[in-house]
Amino acid sequence: xxxxxxxxxxxxxxxxxxxxxxxxxxxxxxxxxxxxxxxxxxxxxxxxxxxxxxxxxxxxxxxxxxxxxxxxxxxxxxxxxxxxxxxxxxxxxxxxxxxxxxxxxxxxxxxxxxxxxxxxxxxxxxxxxxxxxxxxxxxxxxxxxxxxxxxxxxxxxxxxxxxxxxxxxxxxxxxxxxxxxxxxxxxxxxxxxxxxxxxxxxxxxxxxxxxxxxxxxxxxxxxxxxxxxxxxxxxx
Length: 236
Ligand code: ATP
Description:
Layout: E1 4-13, E2 16-26, E3 31-35, H1 42-49, E4 57-62, E5 65-66, H2 72-77, E6 80-83, H3 95-102, H4 109-122, H5 124-128, H6 139-151, E7 157-161, H7 169-184, E8 188-193, H8 196-202, E9 205-210, E10 213-219, H9 220-225, H10 227-233
Helix pairs in contact: 3-6
The structure holds adenosine-5'-triphosphate.
Adenosine-5'-triphosphate (ATP) is lined by residues 13, 16, 18, 36, 38-44, 194.
């Protein structure tokens, strides 16, 4: 059984149908990427999984449990963390306070402190800046903070929406390295990216989404070699 399984999921914004029957699977321990052009429905897919946008048809199962009717806080409590497009950190809170906000499913102060120390061990730059306002961090540091905040609830599945967006090439490399390390540490990852080449290089499996529909799915290495994918998404 896949950890996450979407079957014929539809979603809409008013009269605009953004997802038109999405089926995809994320196996435990893997990195799965969803690539596609602007407006294809990538962010909407993540929002529908996390219960921010309701599914109008179809089913979503997480570890065999149906979740498509749950509220977003209930989805989070099951172990699905969502790092939205644009990071959405709290600019007027310090780095440490941002991390505390991510730990809202964690009950004990001791556990929060321990998890924060783990976050600081993984992201030393955040430790140096623990008392700095989130809004004063660089773009790359804000992305690291957004990821670290999501990790505070120790998710089984981490969903990342365009983590490389707007970052300098060297920082993009660091973000993808972090994704690799987290996966090696046991976190299953569903990654949405416009940066298709790097996403497919880090992922095990990939899905190509177009106009709210999955048009292709395969092992990531095979998609990197696929002529249509190369023409449309890899610029070669
Ligand atoms: P991008 O990378 O540009 O964010 P995407 O693949 O993530 O693209 P979505 O953001 O999921 O695409 O958008 C899918 C469709 O839904 C688009 O046609 C978009 O215009 C529409 N849409 C997205 N958000 C909203 C919204 N809040 N209200 C109305 N329509 C929306």
